[in-house]
Amino acid sequence: MKKVVVAMSGGVDSSVAAYVLKAQGYEVIGVTMSVWQAESADEIASRSGCCGMTATEDARYVCQKLDIPHYVLNFRDVFRKRVIAPFVEEYMKGRTPNPCIACNAFVKWEYLFDKAKALEADFIATGHYAKIVSNKDTGRLTIATSPSAKDQSYALYNMSQEALSKTLFPIGDMDKEDVREIALEQIGLRVAYKPDSQEICFVPYRNHAVFLEEYLGGSLPHGNFVDEDGNILGEHGGLGRYTIGQRKGLGAFGAPMFVKGINGATANITLTKDESRLFNNTLTVGDLAFMSHESIETPMNCLGKIRYAHKASPCTISQQGGIITATFKEAQRAITPGQSAVFYDNNGGIICGGIIQ
Predict the structure, then answer these.
(1) Rounded to a whole number, what is the largest CA-CA distance in the chain?
(2) How far is CA 294 from the centre of its chain?
């Protein structure tokens, strides 16, 4: 019997993933990763999603319901070092990071793998909506989009070939409502209609600035709002409160304004009145992670996503050294340094991805 460690967040997706694997004949072990940074129970409880206290309580309840063992593993140090610290550093550079992608790469598919090996498991599994397929041209494994409207392939682009070969996505072909129905009708779980986590789990009260100030132990770096010619328009509220394309929360300027650029070195934020100035056809990507291909030898036509909720758009990618340049057929709004760009083939398989420079 093959043994699989399931990352249990206490939510309906990972719960049904564990149920499906047990029904398929696997020996299933539930593991919840404790990444809480707060010390008091009240602070911990304020964290939502996969980092909050209720996540562990719900995961334990589900494992009891499924009659499988459950372990809580302390990942605080690695989470702080590999996810939170880079998150703060990126904001202080004027960039907008995606910590969930870092968590997937460095926590779930690095340190969790080590723990799974210690438990003599053959696989790890999660409740992600994504599929693992083999590219027919290269023979390499890749993540492919799920038919579900909840497709999460974008956040998984930096998995290695070894990780892909040892990972299972049991609900990758399902729709969310089917998953909820299984949880309710077949298992009888109280978490069947638990709301999805929508925000960054370790940021309390959905407020990036409050978290950044707490982490840094002081106020955020302040600078000026400037126009595209460098003229000072007024002081802003601190780095970390703004992102490219933002319109709300900028103050009164007599006309709608949009964030066009953020300079981490000077802490100045460039505003524009012309929303069309937020659109660009070209971007560059570094910190590359290749999936279905080992590199891009010649320019390749594909589909590119520049943020999680972005609709993939036709583009051409080419590689020079450790940088990929993507040229989109149609200009894209608010291309944001620090976010990830992920490139797909026409069958929905991930070619590669990286961080927008």
Answers:
(1) 68
(2) 22
Structure tokens at 92: 């202080």
The phi, psi pair for 30, rounded to 5°, reads -90, 135
CA 304 from centroid of its chain's CA atoms: 16
Angstrom distance (rounded) from CA 183 to CA 12: 7
Looking only at the bridges linking them, the beta strands covering 350-356 and 130-134 are unpaired
Cα 352 to Cα 344: distance, rounded to the nearest angstrom: 7
> Residue type for 35, please?
V
Structure tokens at 267: 């802490």
- Rounded to whole angstroms, the Cα distance separating 3 from 124 reads 9
Which pLDDT does position 48 carry in this prediction? 47
- What is the tens place of the pLDDT at every residue in 86-103? 999 999 999 999 999 998
Name the token pair of 312. 């993939």
pTM for the model: 0.92
Range scoring the smallest mean pLDDT among 23-32, 199-208, 221-230, 277-286: 199-208
Q: What is the CA radius of gyration of the chain?
A: 21
- Total residue length of the chain: 357
pLDDT tops 80 at residue 40: no
**Catalytic sites, residue numbers:** 103, 201
